[in-house]
Amino acid sequence: MYIVTAEEMYEIDRYAIKKGGIEGKILMDNAGSQVAQRIVQTYDTNRKMAIVAGGGNNGGDGFVIARYLAEYGYEVTVFQLVADHKIKGDAAFHKQCWLNTSDKLTHVTDSHQLKQRLVDFDVVIDAILGIGVSGAIREPIRSMIDVINHLPIEKISVDIPSGLPANDGIHVDQVIQANKTYIIEAPKETAFCEDTSIYYGEWETVKIGIPQTAYVKHSSKKRWCKKYVRATFPKRDKYAHKGSNGRGLVIGGQLTMPGAIVLAARAALRSGAGLITVATVKENIPIVSSSCIEATYHLLPNLTNRLTDRDLEAFEKIDAIAVGMGIGREDSQLLSDLIEKLDKPLLIDADGLYHAKPLLEPLLQHKAPVVITPHYGEMAMLTDKTVPEVKRSPFSISRQFAEKHQLYVVLKGKYTVITAPDGEQIVSDQGNAGLAKGGTGDVLSGILLTMVMQHKELLSALANGCYLHGKSADYLVEEDHTERDLLATDVIEGLSQVFRTLS
């Protein structure tokens, strides 16, 4: 499933009309009929339906929905919230189609009048404003949206809740708080931003016949799902051996945080790595070895000194490195040595991200891929922005950072945004609130380390790793756990169930 900005959706529509030969009025009819069918499947015909229509294509969709719902036997009234001259083109065509079959069209000019009209209805279908919103909502529509929000009736939005921008990073003024949104063709960026996704309520997409090639040409973002995982997940060769399944290195674990590397190492092994070496201080070895007996170990005198020739020689055999889990924030030369002296894929997480900030220029010279896995707070630190700014613009900020520093960004959250150095993006929305616990990020790093070693294409490797991590939590909460008691160690053990669903 592709994710689009407003500009991309306009180009996709134009492509469907010009290259696909589908007239705009046909696309509009397809959209309205598909939304109407979904409504019929959910609501009984005894529910009185009010459709509030604005200008533009969104209003046109509303007239189509009205016509189809009336044919299905619903009592439907359309309330037009704009002047006649603002309804043009395909929308005007479908308005006339509605008037050819019904006289239930009422012009409403102010919020007080709208409130009086809507109190007799059970459901209001929001077809006021489309994806082109940016900034403040003008009166009287602003007050009308407020009236709708305060009415104790079911609210359904068409394509996007009115007042909400399609793109991330745009100021939100007044928005319909929908109970359900039927998104036309492709979800918009704001469906995956923490501060704006709440306006959609439950949502689903409806397809209206736009050719797949339109998305390939005009969108660089996808929502990752099982179909993509199965298509990209590497098959294990029956003649595979431990070396061919990846030799990974996990570096970290200061004295007060040995559990971080235990979790990362165990997750990497459970994800299918052939060999995992844990590099940590001597005092941690008894703790780590008793919890992860399948790993091997490399002793470091501390986590701050430069790497010795002995260290570098041992690490040359490694296929990829994960560093930062439990490493602490004391001044350290460790990360700079990994960047300068070892041309290995490098995944940087947790405290490693604080050490990485002054090394962003040297990271550009690193000959192997670099992956960073920040949460919102760490991304704010790396970009000198605030956490609210990162939450408001996860796509834009991730893309700018990845392109500027030529690395992969896994911005963790309810909706994890994964970005490649060329700006291509994937959203992984598996997982639940049970992952909001210490250690789950270390588990993700271990999974990603294995995926990096076993995939040819790095972006799909990271997307698959996030899928495994989130889906494990989902399965565990469905069956044996709750979001309250789920632990990071449970997520590791739950991976086997996810793998079984992919076979």
From TrEMBL:
Q: Which family does it belong to?
A: Belongs to the NnrD/CARKD family. Belongs to the NnrE/AIBP family.
Biological process (GO) annotations held by this record are: metabolite repair; nicotinamide nucleotide metabolic process
Q: Does the keyword Signal apply?
A: no
Q: Which residues form the YjeF N-terminal domain?
A: 9-216
In this chain, K(+) is annotated as bound at N58, D126, S162
- Which reaction(s) are listed as its catalytic activity? (6R)-NADPHX = (6S)-NADPHX; (6S)-NADPHX + ADP = AMP + phosphate + NADPH + H(+); (6R)-NADHX = (6S)-NADHX; (6S)-NADHX + ADP = AMP + phosphate + NADH + H(+)
Any idea which positions bind AMP? K412, G413, K414, Y415, T416, G441
Q: Which GO terms describe its molecular function?
A: ADP-dependent NAD(P)H-hydrate dehydratase activity; ATP binding; metal ion binding; NAD(P)HX epimerase activity
| Quaternary structure note | Homotetramer.
Cofactor(s) listed in the protein's UniProt record: Mg(2+); K(+)
Chain sites annotated for binding (6S)-NADPHX: 57-61, 130-136, 159, 260, 326, 375, 442
Q: Organism classification, top ranks?
A: Bacteria, Bacillati, Bacillota, Bacilli, Bacillales
Give the domain of life.
Answer: Bacteria
Q: What remark does the entry make about the cofactor?
A: Binds 1 potassium ion per subunit.
Name the keywords, alphabetized: ATP-binding, Isomerase, Lyase, Metal-binding, Multifunctional enzyme, NAD, NADP, Nucleotide-binding, Potassium
Q: Which PROSITE patterns match?
A: YJEF_C_2, YJEF_C_3, YJEF_N
Presence of keyword Transmembrane: no
Task: Report the EC code(s) recorded for this entry.
Answer: 4.2.1.136, 5.1.99.6
Name it.
Answer: Bifunctional NAD(P)H-hydrate repair enzyme
Per the UniProt entry, what species is this protein from, by scientific name? Gracilibacillus salitolerans
